[in-house]
């Protein structure tokens, strides 16, 4: 069964993860967020009890 032979696919997987970890991820993390969470205000929601007509 050729799908159990990890010889070509394991090296491809390791190479792709190394590429992601060492090249792509630092480039993506260097971008600044357009909507930083510091600017968001906290709002308190009020819960109103529901009056059931059959109780």
From TrEMBL:
Enumerate the UniProt keywords alphabetically.
ATP synthesis, CF(0), Hydrogen ion transport, Ion transport, Membrane, Mitochondrion, Transmembrane, Transmembrane helix, Transport
Question: A GO biological process this protein is involved in?
Answer: proton motive force-driven ATP synthesis
Q: Does the keyword Coiled coil apply?
A: no
State the compartments where it is located. Mitochondrion membrane
Q: Name one GO cellular component term.
A: proton-transporting ATP synthase complex
Q: Which InterPro entries match?
A: ATP8_metazoa (IPR001421), ATPase_protein_8 (IPR050635)
Q: In terms of domain of life, where is this protein from? A: Eukaryota
Annotated membrane topology is: Single-pass membrane protein
Residue intervals passing through the bilayer: 6-24
UniProt GO MF annotations: proton transmembrane transporter activity
Q: Does the keyword Transmembrane helix apply?
A: yes
Its family remark reads: Belongs to the ATPase protein 8 family.
PANTHER family assigned to the protein according to its UniProt record, in alphabetical order:
ATP SYNTHASE PROTEIN 8
The protein here is known as ATP synthase complex subunit 8
- Name the source organism: Psephotellus pulcherrimus (paradise parrot)
Its lineage opens with: Eukaryota, Metazoa, Chordata, Craniata, Vertebrata
